[in-house]
Amino acid sequence: MASTRNQQVLATHRTRFEQQIVGGAEFNKLLREIDAHAYRFEQDKLDRKRWWIYITLPPNVRETFDLRLEVLCLSASYERVEPRTLTVIAERLRSHNARVDPDFAMLLTSDRDAADLVKRRRGQLAILTINAQELVSGSGLGIRERIAEIMTTHDHYDLTLPITEPAAFYGRQAEVAELGFALDRGQAVGVFGLRKAGKTSLLNFVAAQRKEKGKPVVWLDISVLQTAAAFQLEILEKCHNLVREFDLKPPKLMCLTRDGNPNPEAKIGTYWVRDLNALLDLLPDRLEIFVDEIDQAWPSRSNLGAEEAAAVLRCLTQLRGVVQSREADGKHGIGIVCAGVDPAIFEKPLIEGRDNLLYKFARLSFLSPMKRDEMQEMVRSLGKRMALRYSDHQTIDFLFQEFGGHPLLTRKVCSVAARQRPQNAIPWHVPLSALEEAAQMRGPNTPKSEVKDVLASFTEWFGDEAAMLPLLWSGDPQEQEEAREWAQSEPGMAAHLMSYGITDEGWAPRIHAMRALVVE
């Protein structure tokens, strides 16, 4: 009886879906053609233009595309699909039960530009867009063919921008826990590592987690803000927004109007700390500030110019003063997480002969490349979205040995290797030979060129340490041994080689593909 009742409810919701949604009936027909089963139709309670459909694919499709769990589909009756819609899908995948596949979803929409929007988000979301108008006109491919097409045309390894979707963030669980613990205690932490090692992605992930917990979060990027005044105003405006988000009445400020806009008559540099304290007094918890590109505030390293960088440095020093004074008064303070390449801003006691007031303000955390199991999860999960299989442990061993778990370098060689996929090979079990060939390719936008860029970046920041590499990795055993004894006896001479993942604990190459560039 219960089963009959459930079937009646399903039939009712399916009928409503087909009546309300353009292409709804045709979409269900597509599912029936491959014996897929839509077992649930749920109209969104917050937005009646959205329907959520839960689909079980037939065994042959599940096996071919490794979609063994249920597939989530969103039907969105919007003229234009905004990026926020894709984020809603990602949030649903992440928060839903374990029966739904976390790596793949569908989107039924009449917006012809939605497919391009999804393609621009490759590497973060794997979503099959189905155009409702095409279904109504009777054109288009079947579901199986559509899945095959998107998996062979969207390169999810080819991602160079920081990750913003938590579903696309892999590993780093120890670092995530460390930052969360520090923020809970109101400690300042500076995260430093190689170029494209995942620093911004880590900050994005932790910031999203903290927001979900209801924490007041502000995100700043010094390289975007460019000036000290912009830095000050950005903090005030975002804190003003937070106060309103918590349904509180903003205080009267000198630097902002009642609506939260900049006051053109105010002297920002004079009153911004006063205004910040007034806003902090209203927030229900400690403010958490995430600052990216923190090294842009170090005058000798900054692209802002020495004068403007020094002004931003003074802003950060004032922030430290706010933290200390509020802690002394027993008030909610500020937790700060920064990211950059060079930790000099917290590591050097002097700046141009004067005391550096940010010296040891933040605890340093160095982001070395990923661990082997974390790298493996990333490679296999992204590969699944492209109908690629990395089932042979030798392929994983090769990737980790050659690129040491560096996320960008690993994805790059996987991206290049995927171009060797034979036509109509779905799934394709990536052979070791494809990775070896990709790793040896020369020219721009190849794994070798990316390794060269990473090494060049490290050399630019830490030239003295980079100069030790030819000796540490020398083909002459005696020369190599002497260099390693020197590095061990003078830790300051090689302080970042190991922590940044250039070498392992024995001073041997962590990224083996880098050795050829050093000793050739």
Describe the structure.
Strand 3, helix 4 and strand 4 (100-109) form a beta-alpha-beta unit. The protein starts with a helix and ends with a helix. Helices cover 48% and strands 14% of the residues. The chain has helices spanning 2-20, 24-33, 59-65, 83-95, 114-120, 132-137, 143-153, 173-184, 199-212, 222-225, 228-245, 268-282, 306-328, 344-347, 372-384, 393-403, 407-418, 432-440, 447-461, 463-466, 469-472, 477-489, 512-519; strands at residues 37-43, 50-56, 70-76, 100-109, 127-131, 189-193, 217-221, 287-292, 334-340, 350-351, 354-355, 363-367, 388-389, 428-429. The protein has 520 residues and is of the alpha/beta class. The protein is built from 23 helices and 14 strands. The model has no long low-confidence stretch (mean pLDDT 90). The strands form four sheets. A five-stranded mixed beta sheet has the order 1-2-3-4-5, with helices on both faces. Strands 7-8-9-6-12 form a five-stranded parallel beta sheet, sandwiched between helices. Helix 1 packs across helix 2 (24-33).
